[in-house]
């Protein structure tokens, strides 16, 4: 069920989700989709294959901003705030053509896992200009596999890792705190 592979210069254990998913506990009383328990969390069955693909094929950038939150915890609001903050130079709040005036926050900041699960590709995210705002509901232990190499150099550039359990990411120099 799990194999060891070299992911961006590091040996990582990657789980074969096609074999693992049928063995996970199933919950069908939450329409419209079945949930599977993985890593102590109930996740939509359809996104589980993306959890295998992302760490092996996704290349992070030092300027990436991950907006991570639990479902139903203010995600839409946080996406709108983060998008408006990060893009304030290009789209001032008074701009009548501001993307958030014409599209919803979920269109401006796509969720990682469902997008990858639906398309089977990371091309949508690779094409985004820096800084990329990326959204996820994935639990921290799996997310840390994606975010490799965020160390002293990136911290000097402005990205600070979240403190365990705080749900906050602070961007140095800008005094911006994104949290959930």
UniProtKB/TrEMBL annotation:
Sulfotransferase domain mapped to chain residues: 62-138
EC number: 2.8.2.-
InterPro entries, per the entry: P-loop_NTPase (IPR027417), Sulfotransferase_dom (IPR000863)
Gene Ontology molecular function: sulfotransferase activity
Protein's UniProt keywords contain Transferase: yes
Keywords of the record: Transferase
Domain of life of the source: Eukaryota
Pfam families to which the protein is assigned, alphabetical: Sulfotransfer_1
Group of enzyme by EC: transferase
Similarity field: Belongs to the sulfotransferase 1 family.
PANTHER family: SULFOTRANSFERASE SULT (PTHR11783)
Protein name as catalogued: Sulfotransferase
